[in-house]
Design a protein that fits this description.
CATH architecture: Up-down Bundle
Largest sheet: none
Order of helices and strands: HHHHHHHHHH
Oligomer: single chain
Distance between the termini: 15 Å
CATH class: Mainly Alpha
Mean pLDDT: 88
Number of helices: 10
Number of domains: 1
Length: 237
């Protein structure tokens, strides 16, 4: 368990990285981590069920039930912002072994490229959010009335976890567990259907597979470690 003082220092480092990242955001529009069209997503996930169909109604029943049974702790969990900082408590002092500024910048840049890719994908399917279709649904947390399928939060959560696991493989299990919980939390929040989350997790894995193979990411790892990155040897149980 990381010490409280260590976590405060970690958050300071990540805040500085956030400021630096925004200052550099417009320097280049080149997509070096997730080239356009590098994943044929439509071959990986099925189209969502049509609104009003039996399959769609089954999805909505789950959303309604989770809204009725969610607890204050559930609400607090889903209202927490999804970013690198959300995963920091799982890493603790290990963050001090790498260049935290470079780490955050690299992951945020990769996430931005993924967002560009999946925003176009959402427009293809154009599934309305649960709270748009059903006025009984009262969403909590981030819930914009844009296309629901697949879940962008689920995609990003998987990418965050996968890329952090490339740097901290000993924490991979904990990182992936949190990523999965973030995804399913979006259903609890009333912002997504279960199928949005499972599709998003599939897409996130596919995007991460591409990102970690890119020369730009491998070069970033060298900057993050300040040397040739170590070989991955396993994960925690």
């Amino acid at each position: 368990m990381p010490r409280p003082g260590s976590l405060i220092a970690v958050l300071v480092i990540l805040t500085l990285a956030f400021v630096r990242g925004h200052a550099q955001a417009d320097e280049t529009a080149e997509r070096v981590y997730l080239p356009a069209g590098s994943v044929d997503v439509q071959s990986l996930i099925p189209p969502p069920p049509a609104v009003g169909s039996p399959a769609f109604n089954e999805q909505m029943v789950i959303v309604e039930w989770l809204q009725q049974t969610r607890t204050p702790a559930d609400v607090a969990f889903v209202e927490t912002t999804l970013n690198v900082e959300r995963f920091a408590p799982l890493l603790g002092d290990a963050l001090f072994t790498v260049d935290g500024l470079e780490l955050k910048q690299t992951i945020d840049d990769a996430i931005d490229e993924a967002r560009t890719e999946y925003d176009s994908l959402k427009a293809i399917y154009d599934l309305p959010r649960p709270f748009v279709v059903n006025d009984k649904i009262e969403p909590v947390g981030e819930a914009r009335p844009v296309s629901s399928y697949p879940s962008g939060h689920s995609i990003r959560a998987i990418i965050y976890a996968r890329l952090l696991a490339e740097v901290f493989p000993e924490h991979e299990d904990a990182l992936m567990d949190l990523a999965m919980r973030v995804g399913y939390g979006r259903v609890v929040a009333g912002a997504h259907y279960p199928i949005d989350v499972t599709a998003g997790q599939t897409v996130g894995e596919a995007y991460a597979d591409v990102i970690v193979r890119q020369p730009a990411f491998k070069q970033a790892l060298e900057r993050i470690f300040g040397r040739q990155p170590p070989l991955r040897t396993g994960t925690d149980g």
